[in-house]
Amino acid sequence: MKILVCISKTPDTTAKIAFADNNTKFAADGVQWIINPYDEWYALVRAIELKEADPSTVIHLVTVGGVDCDPIIRKALALGGDEAIRVNADSHDSFYIASQIAEVAKKGNYDLVFTGKETIDYNGSSIGGMVAELLDLPYVSLATKFTLEGTDAVIVREIEGGEETNKVALPLVVSCQKGMAEQRIPNMKGIMGARSKPLNVAEPVAVDALTSVASFELPPAKAGVKLISPDNPEELIRLLHEEAKAI
Predict the structure, then answer these.
(1) Which fold has domain 2-218?
(2) Using CA atoms, how far apart are residues 135 and 185, in angstroms rounded to an integer?
(3) Whether this model's pTM surpasses 0.90
(4) What is the DSSP pairing of strand 139-149 with strand 172-176?
(5) Is 37 exposed, middle or buried (0-12, 13-18, 19+ CB in 10 A)?
(6) CB of 1 within 8 A of CB of 58?
């Protein structure tokens, strides 16, 4: 079996967010970059678990980005990927990125394509569906469990108010979320081995981006907390009626 895992570089969740060039670009100075957690903790680790169950499984990683993505993809190799492909392009357009991933997937003849359900910076949750459409493959989103039964995949996914179980023939595309696997930390053997694993750089195919960033905007600052004495329930009721906002 061949598995392609999509990897994205995102800012650490503790990074201070700021923008530059009249709020049209993310200010990257001093930002710590990580593997997108949904890609790492759930998509990649589940692929590694499948390889542990069947050592003949091959795991390839793909990312779309510049040379600054190399440390991120090397960490993914250290966790357990066998080989990586970096498409040498810089874009935040989902269709453009999905098109580059789909091109890699077409050439690799993969049985499975795993993505995280979304990235923690843009929260678009669109790459998996676009990749599946471009490859003309079935797509299951928001997967929390994944098992194999021969050439079929049994996938549990979240739906409104419950869960849904799907049985789908390979090949297919799956987006992964919490429940799919548990986070792992690279060990020293993996870190040392990642240095010699192939990291291939591919030039992008010609695709027109469908979106562009007009501007970024920080959310409004949170209002201060108001403390109400337990002896003054009338004031609490007044505030709830007049100032509290529905969530």
Answers:
(1) Rossmann fold (3.40.50)
(2) 32
(3) no
(4) parallel
(5) middle
(6) yes
Structure tokens at 187: 């060990």
CA dist list (Å): 242 to 128, 224, 228: 44, 16, 15
Other CB atoms within 10 Å distance of the CB of residue 232: 10
Q: What is the model's pLDDT at position 197? A: 94
What is residue 81's predicted lDDT score, i.e. its pLDDT? 95
**Which residue ranges in the chain fall short of pLDDT 50?**
247
Dihedral over alpha carbons 83, 85, 86, 89 (to 10 degrees): -170
The answer to whether the bond into 198 is cis (omega within 30° of 0) is no
Domain map (residue ranges) of the chain? 2-218
Q: What is the pLDDT of residue 188?
A: 85
Helical H runs in the chain? 37, 45-53, 70-79, 94-108, 127-135, 188-194, 233-242
User: How far is the C-alpha of 79 from the C-alpha of 62, rounded, in Å?
Assistant: 14
Both tokens of 209, joined, read 């981006």
pLDDT value for 245: 63
Task: Return the bridge partners of 147, or none.
Answer: 154
Among left, alpha and beta (phi > 0; psi -120 to 50; other), residue 236 is alpha
Res 247: pLDDT: 47
Within the chain, strands assigned E span 2-6, 9-11, 19-20, 25-26, 33-35, 58-64, 83-87, 112-116, 139-149, 152-159, 162-169, 172-176, 199-202
